[in-house]
């Protein structure tokens, strides 16, 4: 039986990336309005050490600027606008404060230990460890665990081999968080036996959502939140 068994969590990938620019305040708010249990966001660190919401290493794809985040100061980041000024690159501190009192938490994807520690310091400052789950590369997650015993961690996973007992003992994740093709009922049952919940990414097609719910997944990260909520409702009605 799954630990903390209950309604599978709906996790909005980068907010609502189809209705709005991903990893922006309007995208996050839209995900809240649609009923997300958690909003997944990506964090990067500017040259002067500010954690901002951005998946890419540069501003090229989303913002049309050939600038590397790591080489850009926060003052330059704040000047970037798009969509007639509607969209800007938010700071993590801003988004964490925005969600305070909403009842919705964050899944924070970090891919560098420095960014992970900066994020952890902000979460600690606001007392939001209960509503924040850290995901991302292993080095970043280990950096979080070394500093904060209370941190909630989703062990992002990319290969068929399952994590070793030694790694699980050191990291103490709450979630096993692989790419969805790596999941099967035996894998999920094994993780449940180890005391972990299972989340998975990034699932956008209803038949796949239904399949994963049927084999016992505990959380789904999706770009299509409304689709998942509809599939989840049907699954729970059975």
TrEMBL record:
This is Glycerophosphodiester phosphodiesterase. InterPro entries: GP_PDE_dom, PLC-like_Pdiesterase_TIM-brl. It comes from Pseudonocardia lutea. It comes from the Bacteria. CDD domains: GDPD (cd08556). Residues 8-232 form the GP-PDE domain. PANTHER family: GLYCEROPHOSPHODIESTER PHOSPHODIESTERASE, CYTOPLASMIC, GLYCEROPHOSPHORYL DIESTER PHOSPHODIESTERASE.
């Amino acid at each position: 039986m799954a630990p903390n068994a209950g309604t599978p969590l709906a996790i909005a990938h980068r907010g609502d990336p189809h209705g709005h620019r991903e990893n922006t305040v309007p995208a996050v708010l839209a995900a809240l309005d649609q009923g997300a249990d958690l909003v997944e966001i990506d964090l990067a660190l500017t040259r002067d050490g500010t954690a901002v919401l951005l998946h890419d290493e540069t501003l090229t794809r989303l913002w049309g600027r050939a600038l590397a985040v790591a080489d850009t100061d926060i003052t330059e980041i704040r000047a970037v606008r798009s969509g007639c000024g509607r969209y800007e690159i938010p700071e993590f501190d801003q988004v964490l404060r925005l969600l305070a009192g909403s009842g919705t938490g964050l899944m924070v994807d970090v891919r560098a230990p420095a960014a992970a520690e900066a994020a952890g310091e902000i979460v600690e400052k606001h007392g939001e460890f209960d509503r924040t789950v850290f995901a991302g590369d292993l080095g970043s997650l280990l950096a979080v665990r070394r500093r904060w015993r209370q941190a909630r961690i989703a062990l992002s996973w990319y290969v068929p081999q399952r994590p070793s007992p030694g790694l699980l003992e050191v990291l103490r994740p709450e979630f096993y968080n692989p790419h969805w093709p790596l999941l099967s009922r035996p894998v999920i049952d094994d993780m449940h036996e180890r005391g972990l919940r299972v989340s998975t990414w990034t699932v956008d097609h209803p038949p796949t959502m239904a399949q994963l719910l049927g084999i016992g997944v505990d959380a789904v990260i999706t770009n299509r939140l409304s689709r998942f909520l509809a599939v989840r409702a049907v699954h729970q009605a059975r």
